[in-house]
Amino acid sequence: MSSQDMQVVGLCRFSYPALGGFQVEHETIEDRRAYLYAPERMEERFRTFETIALPGLKAQTDPNFELLIVVGDCMPAPYLERLAALTQDFPQAVIVQRAPERHRPAMQRVLNDFRRDTGLHTLQFRHDDDDAVAVNFIERLRDVAQDCQGLLARNRLMAIDFNRGFSARPTAQGLEAEPAFLPYYGVAFGMAVAPSVKQSIMNFGHNKVHRVMPTITHTDEDMFVRGHNDFNDSRQKANVSKVDLQPLDAAGEAHFKARFAIDADQVRAAFA
Prior knowledge:
Blueprint: E1 8-13, H1 29-36, H2 39-58, E2 66-72, H3 77-86, E3 93-98, H4 103-113, E4 122-126, E5 132-133, H5 137-147, H6 149-154, E6 157-162, E7 164-171, E8 174-181, E9 189-193, E10 215-218, E11 224-227, E12 246-247, H7 250-260, H8 264-271
Parallel strand pairs: 1-2, 1-4, 2-3, 6-10, 7-11
Antiparallel strand pairs: 4-9, 5-11, 6-9, 7-8, 8-12
Helix pairs in contact: 2-8
C-alpha cells in the first residue's frame, strides 16, 4: 500500500450557517445568517482567505488533493461569485453549497460524498478560512502515512498532527506574529480514515482525538499559521489566552513567503 494512492481531501467551512458548531450562539437561523453575512465580517473573511489561507494551499508541493469549501445555500450571490473568482485558478477547490444543518453530521456527509473508493485509508484535513499551512503540508501528510503503514493496518483511525508554527494577525502594516506550539489545534492537522469508517475528521473535537485513536506528532518545522483576528470564532470564548504578536521583520516576512506563500506586500495592500 502506497500513500501516493490515498485520496487527500480537506474541508473548509466558509461562513456556513450550521446549527451549532459555533462559540457564538444565536436564537434562530435568521440571526445566524445576519451575523455571518454582515458586510464588515465578510470583508474580513475574504481578505484573510485570499491573503492567508489560499496562497499556501495553491502552492502545495504535492497538488494531488481536494479542498471542499462548504458554504450555505443561502449565501448572497455577490459573495458566492467573489468566492468562485478567488478559486478559479485553484483546481483543487470545490465549492459545496449546503442547507443549514447540524454541524458535525452535515460535515461528515460532505466529506463522505466526495470520498473515492480506493480501498485505502483516506487522508482528511480541516482548514479554517483565516489559517495557513506550509507549502509541503500535503506532501508531509502522505510521508507520515507511508511511515505508519503498520499502524494504519491495525487501526481504523489515526491522527497526524504538526504542532509547530505561528499565531499571526494581518494588518495594514504587514503581519504581526509569534511562534506557537499548539498540539492537536486543528490546523496542519490530519486524520487517516479507513474505507469502512463513515466518521470523518469533523466528527471529533481536534483537541480530544488523542483519547480515542493513535496519534503521530511532528514538530520539526513550521507547518501552520493560526489566524488571529476579531472575528475568530474561537476568540469569542471567555478566558482565552492572550498572545504577544510582534511585527515581522524582513527575515520573518521572507520566512512566511517561503514556508506559507504569504506575501506581506499583498497583506498590506488588502488591509490598507
